[in-house]
Specification:
With 301 residues, this protein is α/β, with parallel strands linked by helices. It has helices at residues 8-22, 31-43, 54-61, 65-75, 93-105, 175-188, 208-216, 235-247, 255-271, 282-300, and strands at residues 111-127, 146-159, 165-170, 194-199, 220-224. It is built from ten helices and five strands. The protein has a five-stranded mixed sheet with strand order 3-2-1-4-5. It is globular. 20% of the residues are buried.
């Protein structure tokens, strides 16, 4: 009987070999099925729909929705999301980009750099019923419908260095309003400083009356962003802030109420101003744009 027993060392080695050979959970999804899910996700859409869901892909691939979710998560695929973009067709894109980014990264001495734009058609929306306050276990509420009580246009110039904003609400988005706002900027910026204004290509900014005013105020220098490149103007980032924090969830029975809220936010912003710090170089942006153009050409050709 004793002769039939294996030495202890041999037993442990045999068990170790068995454990190593069978260790781990066996793959339940064939590699071919994974490739099929990835290919369908990237190259096709379900019938009559714009994008896949876990359920529609599971039905098409013959697997469970949980399996689809695991494959998408592992490959970083998110068919339910889409991001917007547009590559500028401006013939002077590179020249304008380098000019604006240069002002951000290396502003001139004895000058102030202001990012300027208009946020037009801000609506004074009132709700049809009073909102309910937030309490434990329930978020604050507001009705989905509203009353329109008019609009205003916010002219704003963001100081790149300090984050302070010169702002003014005017009834309309026209050259008269732009000229009035230029006068406001001229009054508020110390006379010994040059004023570099970064703005978009809106026709109002290039009107003959504006050019005449600029000729009489030589300390003002206008720098235009490329067309379809509003992301290059930092004041657009500030507009997002005021929209999220003061306007979108506001209740405004009248336009004066809306203007008062905007002015309150402006004062609070300027009392505790913080600049948006631009870090991207012109070279890094141009490289991304080049890659984007190559990708677009590959699709269209």
């Amino acid at each position: 009987m004793a002769k039939l027993l294996m030495p202890q060392m041999e037993v442990e080695q045999a068990l170790g070999a068995c454990i190593r050979a069978g260790r781990g959970r066996k793959p339940t999804i064939p590699a071919g099925k994974i490739d099929e899910i990835v290919r369908l996700t990237q190259e096709a859409t379900p019938g009559g729909e714009t994008h896949w869901s876990c359920r529609s892909m599971a039905k098409a691939a013959g697997v469970s929705a949980a399996t689809v979710q695991r494959v998408w998560s592992a490959r970083g695929l998110k068919p339910h999301l889409v991001k917007s973009f547009k590559l500028s067709s401006d013939k002077h894109f590179e020249e304008k980009l380098i000019d604006v980014v240069g002002l951000y990264l290396n502003p001139p001495d004895q000058a102030v750099v202001l990012c300027m734009d208009e946020k037009s058609q801000i609506q004074a929306l009132d709700r049809t019923q009073p909102s309910l306050p937030m309490k434990k276990g329930r978020a604050g509420t507001m009705t989905h419908d509203y009353k329109r009580n008019g609009t205003t246009t916010l002219f704003a110039a963001l100081n790149v260095l300090t984050g302070v904003v010169i702002g003014e609400c005017l009834p309309r988005h026209r050259r008269e309003g732009f000229l009035k706002f230029l006068h406001r900027v001229d009054r508020e910026v110390p006379k010994d400083l040059h004023v570099h204004l970064i703005l978009d290509n809106y026709a109002t900014h290039k009107h003959p009356n504006v050019k005449t005013w600029l000729a009489k105020h030589p300390r003002f220098h206008l720098h235009f962003t490329p067309t379809s490149s509003s992301w290059l103007n930092l004041v657009e980032r500030w507009f997002r802030e005021i929209t999220d924090k003061a306007i979108r969830r506001g209740v405004f029975p009248s336009v004066p109420d809306l203007i008062a809220t905007i002015e309150t936010y402006l004062k609070a912003n300027n009392d505790n101003s913080k600049p948006f710090v631009w870090v991207a170089t012109a070279e890094s942006i141009l490289e991304k744009v080049r890659r984007g153009r190559v990708a677009l050409e590959a699709i269209t050709n």
